[in-house]
# Entry
Amino acid sequence: MARPLPARYLTPLDVADLFGVPVETVYQWRRKRTGPRGFRVGRHLRFDPEDVRRWVAEQMEAAA
# Structure
C-alpha cells in the first residue's frame, strides 16, 4: 500500500477511496465474502485496518 492506513476503524467510503473503487464494490465484496472482513457497529459497517492490510497481503500472494 502506498499510503498508511489510519489508526481508526475504516468506513466503506474509506476502503473504496483507498482502493479507488466505487463504494458499491466494497459492499459487493462483503456480500460475496471476497473482500476484507468487516463488522457492524449498529447499522454502520466498519473495517479494521489490520484486516484490510491482511486482505491486501493475501491478494498479493495469490497474484504472485
